[in-house]
Amino acid sequence: MGALSHIRVLDLSRVLAGPWATQILGDLGAEVIKIEKPGEGDETRAFGPPFLKTRDGRQGDAVYFLSANRNKKSAAIDIATPRGAELVKQLARRSHVVVENFRTGQLAKYGLDYKSLAAENPALIYCSLTGFGHTGPYRDKAGYDYLIQGMGGLMSITGQPDGAPGAEPMKVGVAISDVVSGLYTAIAILAALLHQHRTGEGQQIDMALFDCQTAALANQAMNYLAGGQLPKRLGNAHPNIVPYQVFETADGHLILAVANDGQFKRFCKAAGLEGLSSDPRYASNAARVDHRDELVGMLKPVLRQRTNAQWIAALEAANVPCGPINRIDQLFADPQALARGLVVPLEHAGGTIDLVASPLRLALTPPEYRSAPPTLGQHTDAVLQELLKLSPAQCAELRALHIVG
Questions:
Q1: pTM score, two decimals?
Q2: Is residue 210 part of a domain?
Q3: 178 a catalytic residue
Q4: Are residues 321 and 344 in the same domain?
Q5: Which of 3, 98, 126, 297 could form an SS bridge with 365, CB 3.0 to 4.6 Å?
């Protein structure tokens, strides 16, 4: 039994940030009912190629959808119709948590806003996840990950430095603002569930991608706020630690992650550069940051003299953090990934599919892999019949009226 096996989550979110949060809750045992528009569903079902193939060879869902929707039931209900909205209200009365990522105020016209639902279920936790939150001048703006990476400062510190080849602000290669926001949202919901358990009270949660991305600037935000430094793009270098970047080797590229003075001494010895660690310009990290360009300039030709494998063997023997830059196929073939079971196969309507495992490792209540991401409307009748006690005939009538799918 998962830690959240007693919790029911009504998931009105789509795309990535909201579904990422609710998938975490589902992995931890919660019953997650995903409400989707009949005939269309979550937008990410069309975010392809690549697409799955159905058993009869037709094009199925985009594999993007698979990344954030396992352990969920799909109920296709048109909330834009009065009867559809009423069905969702009834489900909300029977749920512990509602998660939605519609634009600010949009659900009020269907009677699916916090005030309306909490009036019927005071214990309800109602979590909204929008681009900019429900307050402030941007509250009505749509928030997409790419925009948030830009507006939230991340792109200003990502990419090659000015003057270098290919220099321009760069987004991260995955929708990281969405992913981080999904993580923060799951944490907020878990905190609200603890409060709900102690007091019986529900509450409203107002999450914003903009806020979450700002929080995720971490040390770079503090470099500015407390250190008085405006962070800039440094390519693969670190603003506060040197040498902590990618170096070219004889046959590729190597990450060298020297995080303290002891590691620097051991690196210098392994590299045949013992004199550098006693030089006052490089003996401390603060001095190395001040003399970054000249130190890195000396290290580059040295690192090019050996292969990746030779450097990794020598530096690991000296207890100096380093590593290769894996392609994604190399990642999943890595012995560590295999040992940790980072790929989970699940049966899907189109056949067995491989999914990325949850990174959560709990000894007594580990994540569960109960079901693959659902097909659109796969559980509509089951949800309506089991939770709302509708008859098969009533479900058929709603389907004929295109209220459910």
A1: 0.94
A2: yes
A3: yes
A4: no
A5: 3
